[in-house]
Design brief:
The protein is α/β, with parallel strands linked by helices. The chain is built from 13 helices and 17 strands.
Length: 410
Amino acid sequence: MTKIYPQLDIPNTLAAGPGPGNTDPRVLERFAASGVADHMQKDVLRGMIEAKEMLRELWGTKNVYTYGVAGTGFSGLDCVLSLILPGDKVVAFPNGTFSGIDSLTIRMKASTAEELAADSLNPKPKSVTIVETPHGKSVTGEIVEKALAAAKPMWAFMAHWETGSGRVNDLKGFNDACLKHGVMGIVDAVSSLGVGDFNIDDYPGVVAWASCPQKGVLSLPLTYAPVSFTDKAIEMVKKRGCRTYVNHPILDARHWGIIDGKDVPTPAYHQTHSCYAVAAFHEALRIILGYGRRRKATDYVYHEKALRQAVEAMGCEVTSNMPSLVVCNLPGKLRGKEKDLVANARAQGFGIWPTLSEPVQVRIGILNQLSPEQIGEIVSRFADAMLAMGAEFDKQKVMNGLKSYYAKAA
Ligand SMILES: *Cc1c(COP(=O)(O)O)cnc(C)c1O
C-alpha cells in the first residue's frame, strides 16, 4: 500500500536565533509570484545579472567574480575552499562551531589520498596547521601574524564573525598579516554580510569570500550563497584547476554572465537555476540596498545593545560581541538547564538556540527584528522562558528598563 501523508503545514515561528533570520514578506511574495520560467529565460538571466551587480554594491567590491552559489552558506564555502588542493600549506584560525566545520572542510581538501584514507571523516593532513582560539574569544591580528610568520603557508583562513560563539574576529589584522607574509586569505563572511558595514576591496589580502542566503541577506527560500574572488584567486584556479564541477569558481560564474574574466550580456548554462530563487534573492538585495548598508549596520548595533542590557538585567552573562546575536550564560541557578530552556521556548514557536559545541550557552538573535516593538517581543518571550524555568527577577522592571533605553535614545 502506498502511504501518502497529509499536506505538510509548517507554522510561522519567531526566528530569534543566529540564523536563519525572519524572511521579509516581500522576498516570499517575489518567490511565490514568479511565473514558471526556465533557467535560460531572458528575465531570469536579467535577474541574475542585476543580482550580481547589487551584490557587488552590497559587498563593496569591484571583483568581477562576485555572484551566488546555489544552496546554503556551506555551499558557498565549499566553492571558495575548493581553491585549496591536496598538499597545499594552510593555516586556519577557528574559534567556534562554524569556523571549526570550515577547518574540517579545509583538512579534507588539503589531504593527500593517503591522509584522507587514514581518517576519512576527520583527516589530519601534515600541510594544515589549526590554530584554535577558545570559544568566547576573538581571533586577534597578533595571533594570525605570529602563526603566519612561523608557518609561511600558501593560504590562511578565518571566519569574519563566528556565529557559534558570537565573536567578531580581527579582519584588518588578518588582512595585514596575509599581505605582509604573501599569504592568500580566505574568509567566511556568512554572518557579517548584510549586517556589518565593510568593503571587500579594503582587504586586498583576502582573495576569496563566502557568505550565505539566510542570515544578513535574509533570503531563506533556498537561494544563493554569495561568493567573491579577486583576479589573483581566479588566476590560481585557472592555472591549477580544482576538483568540483558544480561549485567551480570559474565555471559556476558563467550562468551569472561572467566569462573569461569579464561581464558578458549573455550568460551560459551551468546548472538549472530556479526562477523562484532568483526572484527572491534579487528582492532581498533590493531591500538591503534600499535600507542602506550603513544604516542597517548602525541599527543592528543599537538594537543588540538593547537586547544585551535586557538579558543582563535578567541575570545572564553575555560573552559575545556580534551586532546580530547575543550569546550568554544563564544565571547560577539555571546553569545546566540551557537545553531545556531552549527546547521549551522552541515548543512555543520562539526559535532561540543553544550553542552547538561546548560550552553550552544560549544564543538569541535579532536578524530582521530592527524595531523597539520586535526587540520588546523577543525580550518578553525570553523573560517568560526564564521565569518558567525558575529564574528570579521582576519582568516588569526588565521591560521598563528596555523602554527607557529606547526613550533615552530617541
Ligand atoms: C550559519 C553559518 C555557516 C553555515 O551556513 P549554512 O547556511 O547553514 O550552510 C557557516 N559559517 C558561519 C560563520 C555561519 O554563521
